[in-house]
Amino acid sequence: MQPRIEPDSTTGTIDIEQIRQDFPALHQQVRGKPLTYLDNAATSQKPKQVIEALSRYYSYQNSNIHRGVYYLSEQATAAYEAARVKAQRFLNAANPAEVVFVRGTTEAINLVASSYGRLVLQPGDEVVISAMEHHSNIVPWQLLCESVGANLRVAPIDTSGTLIISEYEKLLGPRVKIVALVHVSNSLGTINDVKHLVGLAKEQSAVVLIDGAQAAPHMPIDVQDIGCDFYTVSGHKMYGPTGIGVLYGRIELLETMPPYQGGGEMIRSVTFEKTTYAPPPAKFEAGTPHIAGAIGMGVAIEYLEQLGWDFVREQERVLLEYALERLATVPGLQVIGSAESRASVISFTVDGIHAHDIGTIVDQEGVAIRTGHHCTQPIMDFFGVPATARASFAFYNTVEEVDTLTKALMEAREVFG
Ligand code: PLP
């Protein structure tokens, strides 16, 4: 099955309307209006190719993997393992065994905190995160630090939503065993220079995890170039199914780490006296995995590869610039976060209107945006706001949709005077 995107044969450009045809969810009316889906940072819509892959798997290939000697099980196993190789290629990991299928970024970080964290952390040791982390890159480390008597340190950001690198550097000392940083902030859109930040942490021999949940849908990822030890991805944010994601881990670390969960699939041999474990990645994939999810994520990866990063990045850059320009015309609207390097995510407040009211009013126009703290309460505290509204764009969004959002916000302004 081939993705259907092909550049126009005469102009060589990709037709956005042709791409939108691949996404059934984009062609529906909600509240009597055409859907304008601008909540891509929460989850992206899925192309037909991914939906059809799930349907095909459940219709014709459904069987459990790795254990069966019969035809269907061999087919399903091959498709699952082929998806692992696609994810390896997507992240430029050195080895498919470095790709562990998990439920998503949240599970990936919990896996590392529980397994690697408990292995290495001693009382008095330190874990460094930043002030722009998603709760899923805060809470697992808090739980870990509390349980072993270690300390969580937080590198601050400035009012543009940029990490203050000199302060980050000051935190990096010999007690720091783990550094966990977000690649792209889901509330501010800030893109961190993770290669540089990893390099600084490596000077102190810290192990580094990068939360790539918001980066993987928007830019090419090269874990070897970044130099990180762990990298996390959520399939549903990059046009794949929910309930599937990847933990990349450097093989030397995965080999030394104890299992995260026990059960079938992750063992070499079991007796009542002693169990020995399978090598990675199986050691970390206890039980029946999300087989269809992994296959669907593999198709989403191929879809992105077929589109090409040049197209994705350019389309999203145009949308971001246009949206910033248009939103600036809405009276009382303030954008939260203005880092120099940023992804197509815009958080904002409007004077005199609570974020939830903004979301509810624009919903009447068919516009789906997120409102709330976006699982980043410390960022809200830092900016002194209870919540923001957030519009986040994917390559399939259009400038007309930005206009629809702007118009809906103008209407909200009128309602609230
Ligand atoms: N990290 C970031 C930056 C996110 O934006 C999200 C989800 O919004 C997560 C982690 C958690 O991802 P998931 O819910 O897919 O586990």
Instruction: Using the coordinates shown, work out and report the CATH topology of the largest domain.
Output: Aspartate Aminotransferase, domain 2
Bound molecules: pyridoxal-5'-phosphate
Largest sheet: 7 strands, mixed
Q: Which regions contain 5 or more consecutive residues with pLDDT less than 50?
A: none
CATH architecture of the largest domain: 3-Layer(aba) Sandwich
Q: Which structural category do the helix and sheet elements fall into?
A: alpha/beta
Q: Please tell me the total number of domains.
A: 2
Strand content: 15-25%
- Could you name the CATH class of the largest domain? Alpha Beta
Percentage of residues in helical conformation: 25-40%
Strand order of the largest sheet: 4-10-9-8-7-5-6
| 3D shape | globular
Explain what the structure shows.
This protein has 417 residues and is α/β, with parallel strands linked by helices. The protein has two domains: 16-43 and 308-415, Aspartate Aminotransferase, domain 1; 51-305, Aspartate Aminotransferase, domain 2 (3-Layer(aba) Sandwich). 39% of the residues lie in helices and 17% in strands. The protein has helices at residues 16-20, 48-61, 71-91, 105-120, 139-148, 165-171, 194-203, 223-226, 251-256, 291-307, 309-327, 355-363, 377-383, 399-416; strands spanning 29-30, 33-34, 36-37, 99-102, 126-130, 151-155, 176-182, 207-211, 230-234, 245-249, 267-270, 275-277, 333-336, 345-350, 367-368, 370-372, 388-392. The strands form five sheets. The chain has a seven-stranded mixed beta sheet with strand order 4-10-9-8-7-5-6, sandwiched between helices. A four-stranded antiparallel beta sheet has the order 13-14-17-16, covered by helices on one side. The protein has a two-stranded antiparallel ribbon with strand order 1-2. Strand 8, helix 8 and strand 9 form a beta-alpha-beta unit. The site of pyridoxal-5'-phosphate has 13 residues, from helix 4.
